[in-house]
Design brief:
Chain C: Pfam families: Oxidored_q2. Chain C: InterPro entries: CPA3_antiporter_subunitC, NUOK/Mnh_C1-like. Chain C: This is Cation:proton antiporter. The complex is a heterotrimer of chains A (about 160), B (about 775) and C (about 120). Chain A contains five helices and two strands; from the N terminus they run ααααββα. Residues about 145-155 of chain A have low confidence and may be disordered. With about 160 residues, chain A is mostly helical. Chain A has helices at about 5-30, 35-55, 55-65, 65-85, 110-135, and strands at about 95-100, 105. Chain B has a two-stranded antiparallel sheet with strand order 1-2. Chain C has about 120 residues and is mainly alpha-helical. Chain C has a single domain (about 1-55, about 70-115), classed as Helix Hairpins (Orthogonal Bundle). Helix content of chain C is about 70%, strand content about 0%. Chain C has four helices and no strands. The longest helix of chain C has about 30 residues, at about 70-100. The termini of chain C are far apart. Classes of the chains: A mainly alpha (about 160), B mainly alpha (about 775), C mainly alpha (about 120). Chains in contact: A-B, A-C, B-C. The interface between B and C is large, with 105 and 96 residues.
Chain lengths: ~160, ~775, ~120
């Protein structure tokens, strides 16, 4: 697929905003509409948009982490948030809260939601990136000089 | 504490035996026998207090919520059996060390054998129905691995499976019986159940309890019609046959009947079922034994005969019968274990067990010969040997019955005649006469191979001469426990000239006659038919049953799981619709009054969009149009959520719809379009099922909506969301706090799905795909050329 | 509206069941999507619908406003939507992968190929 200038320009503007918004949605989720699932989906949409505009290789580079790592660490973080209360003698999964100076409340359920967020981002991007890498090549290929696009499949 | 140690010592040995056996070398059997010998010595310290009327109980909470304890109980009966198990076990361990000398899996063998011994000791000492059941099953499992010890032989594997299937099926019945017993008595503690007197007999479950418990006992103790597994179990190495399938494990079933005798016996059902099946098994197997020429075959069937006799005596239930039962347990264990060890020694020295091919071995193995003669004299019930005492009391018991005395005496006589003949075959055929080609090369057995048989022979002779030694120390406490009442039995060699003595004389005379008529009798048509029907016949019946089961399973699988998703769906949904439809038809359908008043126009529009979008997917064929139609339906659902107070759901649905579109576009571009190929008839059939299922959903929903709404759960979360979970978004607090464990499960599912997708896409191509790709390539070549 | 949705859901289920029985695997996946949507709506309807407030507690308050929507069914559906997406993605990739390997999206061919491979 060819690169679309309009899409690239829009994406450059939209993607950071969407990611920022997704974090906002996740963090406020405990009190207002939002949460880890929704935040994660918004963030995944942002990276999907980026991939549409610039190709998955660039999108992977923009994400830094491998989506698989995101998935696994998401579940890991959720599990850790469940284990933390055990150290203070509380039962498994008991929500523990502390209030920072300035009135900001932090608690293990927020950590849990971060885990959910990462899992959702990772899982969605694994599907999209891997499918495109498998040779569907609907998204643009890396077009910088010096790199050759992988051959498309016979299908 | 000591009792627990006594039970678990065997398990401990089982754990270490595979690792240390390499280092113990020739001394292995003697060394390991110290474990059962030590347990025997420890348990012997209980003889005096138990004889004085004491009982010991230790209990540890195991699953306290279900009243399951790891508890053990020492009384006369359990001590009697426990001593028998560890005592014979000591001799078997020594014997096994010599018999399997140098075997490359000797350590494994001893691990299994010790595990079995521990399970058996645990079984007889158990004081909780579940503890009992678990040890009962462990003995079946140990028997399975020991029968299948030579697992590279198909016959061993088959015999092991057969024994396992039959005894485990019985074990399940026993478990059910135990659960009913708990219902009837309100306790799982065996010693407490034994105190309940008439509670079980008067309970409505009595018949069921008896039938279920007996199913467990009869399968384990090889009663008709389940006995056919026992001769097959002779595939096991001979020490196993001697120990498990003669002296101990098969007596677990006898122990079950004896243990619960005080609370289950005394009814006509018990008398005729236990007494009758026991007598039938006894006579049948005694004569079947004469059909065999294999030493172990004869021993196997005479073992079933002994188990039948013990079962019969427990069924008769008089004091004399119960005394006879206990004495016969000892008598049989002593001579039968000895004879198995003799058979094993012969097999070890000559590599042949067919009595028609053996002969003259008395000069080659004189001590073994002596032990065999004494054991056989005891088996035949010749005076001055222990077996004589046993047989005398059995006759005494059957003669003094209030009912059917003639029937049971006749049965006992008939069985004992055959037993005398079998004893003759076992003592005379292998040892007397001239040496032949086979036996002249026999080598002298090791000490370990004759030691056990010799000790047991000495016991058979010694207790025959001085049977009163058993009276107060062993017999009185075990008989009291068996009867549930005080008893003071007395054994004597000489009872004067009486009817039992005369019967003994007749038995021996007829037995000797049978011995001399053996060869023609064995080959006669009626006896062959007997063996064909009730010997191999039952065994073949088992094969037919198993094959039938497998064939049924295969047919059912082929019918239900044929690879056509359409048929799965039709089966599942068709059944559901039929069942739900029947329920509505039977109990009536109550829906709300159908009223569409007050539904705003935009709600009608949304509903139409939801259904319309989905409906369009049926008629569109262009992939991209399909996705668009699906999206319309999905976005309309999101709007519905939004309007009815669910902003979280609306957002999620919007985002998911977006990602779904991306996904479909990515994939569908690569997939071909398939035009509908189903005939009108098929489509009509599918449509009928679809409409029926849809109608069922609507009807179910209307019925549910007609019920008053119960929302305690929802209100709970509303009330505590802020105070307990510190959150103002209640949906979110449910997800990440109240039900966070569920959410963790769900994200784990997504994780697995994610890795599944990754693996699918990176998977190496399979053979089929290579084939497909090759054919695709060749087609292209053809097209080009 | 609840009564109306009972019929909407019935229609969705009927369409989904019909699609699930198609030989075209893509249509089968579409059937799965429609069925997930139907079941989510079913949960939503049976949790009783109200046009009133979302189950959110206002700043400073301790309890949600009187008569707000049922949060329990919403929590159930929220995860169900995401799980449904996971299922959809997995089935679609499976279909795609099967097509790459076996060169067909016809369920009928799969049964025949399955026996070839043995």
């Amino acid at each position: 697929m060819r690169l679309s200038l309009i899409l690239r320009t829009a994406a450059r503007l939209l993607v950071p905003l969407m990611i920022l918004f997704s974090v906002f949605l996740m963090l406020r989720g405990h009190n207002e509409a939002g949460g880890g699932f929704i935040g994660g989906l918004v963030s995944a949409s942002a990276f999907a948009l980026y991939a549409m505009a610039y190709g998955t290789q660039d999108a992977r580079r923009a994400l830094y982490a491998d989506p698989r790592t995101l998935m696994a660490s998401g579940v890991g973080i959720a599990l850790v948030s469940a284990l933390i209360p055990l150290f203070s003698g509380a039962p498994f999964f008991k929500g523990l809260w502390t209030t920072l100076p300035g009135g900001v409340k932090l608690g293990t359920p927020i950590l849990f939601d971060i885990g959910v967020y990462l899992l959702v981002v990772g899982m969605t991007l694994v599907v999209i990136y891997e499918l495109d890498d498998d040779g569907l090549s609907l998204f643009p290929r890396d077009n910088r000089p010096g790199t050759t696009p992988p051959s498309s499949p016979a299908a | 504490m000591g009792i627990v140690l006594a039970v678990f010592a065997g398990f401990a040995l089982a754990l270490v035996a595979p690792w240390i056996t390499g280092a113990t070398g020739r001394a292995t059997g003697w060394l390991y026998s110290l474990v059962p010998a030590g347990i025997t010595a420890y348990l012997s310290t209980f003889i005096a207090p138990v004889a004085a009327g004491e009982t010991m109980r230790v209990a540890y909470a195991w699953v306290p919520g279900l009243n399951v304890d790891l508890s053990f109980y020492v009384d006369g009966l359990s001590l009697f059996f426990a001593l028998l198990i560890t005592g014979i076990g000591t001799l078997i361990f020594i014997y096994a060390g010599a018999y399997l000398k140098g075997h490359h899996h000797l350590g494994r063998f001893f691990a299994y054998l010790s595990m079995f011994m521990a399970a058996m000791v645990g079984l007889v000492l158990a004081d909780n129905l579940f503890t009992f059941y678990i040890f009962f099953e462990l003995t079946s499992f140990a028997s399975f691995v020991l029968i299948g010890f030579n697992h590279d032989e198909a016959a061993s594997r088959r015999a092991a499976w057969q024994a396992l299937l039959i005894t485990k099926a019985g074990g399940l019945a026993l478990l059910a019986g135990f659960l009913l017993m708990e219902q009837a008595t309100g306790t799982l503690q065996i010693s407490a159940i034994l105190e309940t007197g008439e509670a079980i007999r008067d309970h409505g479950f009595y018949t069921a309890i008896v039938l279920l418990v007996l199913a467990g006992a009869f399968t384990k103790s090889a009663q008709f019609p389940f006995y056919f597994w026992l001769p097959n179990a002779m595939q096991a190495p001979t020490p196993v046959s001697a120990y498990l399938h003669s002296a101990t494990m098969v007596k677990a079933g006898i122990y079950v009947m004896a243990r619960f005798h005080p609370v289950l016996s005394g009814t006509d059902l018990w008398f005729w079922l236990v007494g009758g099946i026991g007598a039938f098994t006894m006579v049948l197997s005694a004569w079947l034994a004469l059909q065999y020429t294999d030493l172990k075959g004869i021993l196997a069937y005479t073992t079933i005969m002994a188990l039948g006799a013990l079962t019969m005596l427990l069924g008769l239930g008089t004091e004399t019968a119960l005394k006879a039962c206990l004495v016969f347990v000892l008598v049989h264990a002593f001579y039968k274990a000895a004879l198995f060890m003799v058979a094993g020694a012969i097999d070890h020295g000559v590599h042949e067990r067919d009595i028609t091919k053996l002969g003259g071995l008395r000069s080659k193995m004189p001590i073994t010969f002596g032990a065999a003669v004494i054991a056989c004299l005891s088996m035949a019930g010749i005076p001055l040997f222990f077996g004589f005492i046993g047989k005398e009391i059995i006759y005494e018991a059957t003669l003094h019955l209030d009912q059917a005395a003639l029937f049971f005496t006749g049965a006992a006589l008939l069985a004992n005649v055959a037993l005398v003949a079998s004893a003759g075959l076992l003592a005379i055929r292998p040892f007397m006469g001239p040496l032949n080609d086979l036996t002249s090369h026999a080598h002298r057995p090791d000490t370990g191979l004759w030691f056990g048989a010799a000790v047991l022979a000495v016991l058979s002779l010694g207790l025959g001469l001085a049977p009163w030694l058993l009276d107060s120390a062993i017999l009185a406490p075990s008989l009291s426990a068996l009867m549930g009442a005080e008893a003071t039995p007395h054994l004597a060699i000489w009872h004067g000239f009486n009817l039992p003595l005369a019967l003994s004389g007749v038995t021996v005379a007829l037995g000797v006659g049978t011995y001399f008529a053996w060869t023609p009798m064995r080959q006669s048509a009626p006896f062959r038919a007997l063996e064909r029907w009730l010997g191999t016949g039952l065994d073949n019946g088992y094969d037919h049953a198993i094959n039938g089961l497998l064939a049924t399973a295969t047919a059912q699988t082929n019918f239900l799981q044929n690879g056509y998703l359409r048929r799965y769906i039709a089966t599942i949904l068709g059944t559901t619709v039929a069942v739900v439809g029947y329920t509505f038809g039977h109990f009536g359908f109550e829906g709300p009054v159908l009223s569409f008043v007050g539904i705003a126009p935009y709600e009608w529009i949304l509903s139409l969009l939801i259904v319309g979008g989905a409906l369009a997917t049926l008629f569109l064929s262009a992939r991209i149009a399909l996705v668009a139609a699906l999206g319309i339906s999905g976005f309309s659902i999101a709007l519905t959520y939004l309007m009815y107070g669910a902003p979280d759901l609306a957002m999620t649905q919007f985002l998911i719809e977006t990602l779904t579109v991306i996904l479909f576009v990515l994939i569908l571009a690569a997939l071909p379009t398939l035009s509908e190929v189903a005939s009108i008839g098929h489509r009509l059939r599918d449509g009928v099922l679809a409409v029926a299922t849809g109608s069922m959903f609507t009807a179910l929903m209307l019925a549910v909506l007609n019920q008053p709404f119960e929302n305690r759960m929802g209100e709970y979360y509303m009330q505590y969301s802020y105070s307990e979970a510190q959150g103002r978004n209640i949906v979110n607090t449910i997800l990440v706090d109240f039900r966070a464990l569920d959410t963790l499960g769900e994200i784990t599912v997504l994780l697995i799905a994610g890795f599944g997708i990754y693996t699918l896409l990176r998977l190496k191509r399979s053979k089929t795909s290579e084939k497909v790709e090759a054919s695709r390539a060749s087609e292209q070549v053809e097209q080009l050329s | 509206m609840e009564t109306l949705l009972a019929f909407v859901i019935g229609a969705l289920v009927a369409i989904a069941v019909y699609q699930l029985q198609r030989r075209d695997l893509v249509r089968m996946v579409i059937g799965i999507v429609i069925l997930s949507n139907a079941v989510n709506l079913l949960l939503f309807t049976l949790g009783r619908m109200t046009r009133a407030e979302a189950p959110l507690i206002e700043l400073g308050a301790k309890l949600p406003p009187e008569g707000s929507a049922n949060p329990l069914s919403q929590a159930l559906i929220l995860t169900a939507i995401v799980i449904g997406f996971g299922l959809l993605a997995f089935s679609l990739v499976l279909v795609y992968r099967a097509y790459r390997s076996l060169d067909t999206v016809d369920a009928q061919d799969f049964v025949e190929l399955e026996f070839d491979d043995a």
